[in-house]
Specification:
The protein is an alpha/beta fold and 449 residues long. Helices cover 41% and strands 16% of the residues. It has 2 domains: 139 residues, Aspartate Aminotransferase, domain 1; 273 residues, Type I PLP-dependent aspartate aminotransferase-like (Major domain) (Aspartate Aminotransferase, domain 2), CATH 3.40.640.10. The structure holds pyridoxal-5'-phosphate (PLP).
């Protein structure tokens, strides 16, 4: 019974990123029971269109029996063995080889972990290891960006640039410098303006110089910033950031935890923006969330101290390359290829989502609609001309989000905006339903203001 589950949850379960007083005030969490395609059902039988693919991760959609079958077979055969020291197993070998075939040229070696946070921690250890093995241990600073989200471990939270994540003593740890993101809405700029693209990229150089170029190990960024509010790079941004990294010899880490595995219409966001990363981190869509697994891919430059020199890199997780997770990831990649989900995103889903949301541009609450591939954001504003936000205390975005939930649509509020990242399998009709529900909620919140 729902009420019993809710009471037990309130009594014992600590939720990530949750205001527990608010949760208790609402009588406990909504209990999600099952899913199919882009749809979820709760314990009271209500159906929800999942406009967020869980946490930007259920790329192939819910309810794929093949993945359960693969997991079961792998558990029966070899439920666990580690990849430390000198052992390996079929699923991890096959997955490494498969990823090397999909990754942009040059990224040939893959290390596995369980979460995006661990992948980003690993990336930082790898790039710092690279410079230390090259006799430059002072090159340890990582340039990241304000508003970014890179995970929740102490290091990943430090890499992130959300003020709320730094509101705990000891975070950010030393050695992280944050640059301004290419956030046109906040900067009062036009997203399509190449001049803004150049200026935004120059913010990365400013951060490098602030840190001291000789102390910088790497720059980390998502091709399109996701949880930070779907911050889409303006024209020329990535080309110039790449040039800046090259000029200072700084390694470039692409966090592909959200952009990877089809969300941008290519296997990786780096391919959509012609970025040449030295290191790439991935998670979420690697298994479409069916198993916890993440990976870090590196090029020959970063791999050289690991592969060609005597000595070991003291880093790894008990479940690095877990056989069941690796087998499930492989099946997930098979499904993506078999169903041509990248093509579906490019030809159907992304155009439907972007044009559908664009119809809300003139809504009195909406200041901007932006997106890339199958992620999008609506920026809400109290005044379109000045881009003035609503009073954050009475967050209008949160009200729209909550009403959407009641009317059967999952979205997420980020600052005074709403973000969308549905499963890649979403159909044109389902996008239509998403837009219809969203519009009715915007209308009613607007009317009630
Ligand atoms: N990097 C990005 C871009 C993310 O969006 C996230 C999670 O949302 C992470 C890293 C952290 O991944 P995880 O929650 O698996 O640790």
């Amino acid at each position: 019974p729902t009420a019993e589950l809710q009471a037990a949850d309130l009594a014992h379960h600590l939720h990530p990123f949750t205001d527990h007083t608010e949760l208790a005030g609402e009588g406990g969490p909504r209990i999600i029971t099952h899913g199919e395609g882009v749809w979820l059902w709760d314990s009271e039988g209500r159906r929800l269109l999942d406009g967020m693919a869980g946490l930007w991760c259920v790329n192939i959609g819910y309810g794929r029996p093949e993945l359960g079958e693969v997991a079961r077979r792998q558990m029966d055969r070899l439920a666990y063995y580690n990849t430390f020291f000198k052992t390996s197993h079929e699923p991890v070998v096959e997955l490494s080889e498969r990823l090397a075939g999909l990754l942009p040229d040059g990224l040939d070696h893959v290390f596995f972990a369980n979460s995006g946070s661990e992948a980003n921690d690993t990336a930082v250890r790898l790039v710092r290891n690279y410079w230390a093995r090259h006799g430059q241990p002072e090159r340890h600073v990582i340039i990241s960006r304000r508003h970014a989200y890179h995970g929740s471990t102490i290091l990943a939270a430090s890499l992130g640039g959300m003020a709320s994540m730094h509101d705990i003593p000891g975070i950010p740890v030393p050695g992280i410098v944050h640059a301004e993101p290419p956030y046109s809405w906040e900067a009062g700029a036009d997203l399509d303006d190449p001049e803004f693209g150049a200026r935004a990229a120059d913010a990365v150089e400013e951060a490098i110089l602030r840190a001291g170029a000789d102390s910088v190990a790497a720059f980390i960024g998502e091709p399109v910033m996701g949880a930070g509010g779907v911050i889409v790079p303006p024209p020329g941004y990535w080309k110039r950031v790449q040039e800046i990294c090259d000029r200072y010899g700084i390694l470039l880490i692409c966090d592909e935890v959200i952009c990877g595995f089809g969300r941008m219409g290519e296997w990786f966001g780096a391919q959509s923006y012609a970025i040449r990363p030295d290191v790439m981190t991935m998670a979420k869509g690697l298994s479409s969330g069916y198993q916890p697994i993440s990976a870090v891919a590196i090029n020959a430059r970063v791999a050289e101290p690991l592969l060609d020199r005597v000595g070991r890199f003291p880093h790894g997780f008990t479940y690095s390359g877990h056989p069941v997770a690796a087998a499930v990831a492989l099946e997930n990649l098979d499904i993506m290829a078999r169903e041509n989900l990248l093509g579906h995103v490019r030809v159907t889903a992304a155009p439907a989502l972007q044009t559908g949301l664009a119809t809300l541009r003139d809504h009195p609450l909406v200041g901007e609609v932006r997106g890339a591939g199958l992620v999008a954001a609506l920026e809400l504003t109290a005044d379109k001309a000045s881009r003035r936000p609503f009073d954050p205390a009475g967050s209008v975005a949160t009200r729209v989000r909550d009403l959407c939930f009641e009317r059967g649509l999952v979205t997420r509020a980020v600052r005074e905006g709403l973000v969308f990242a549905p499963p890649l399998v979403i159909s044109q009709d389902e996008v239509g339903e998403l837009v219809t529900i969203l519009k009715s909620c915007l209308d009613d919140v607007w009317a009630a203001l």
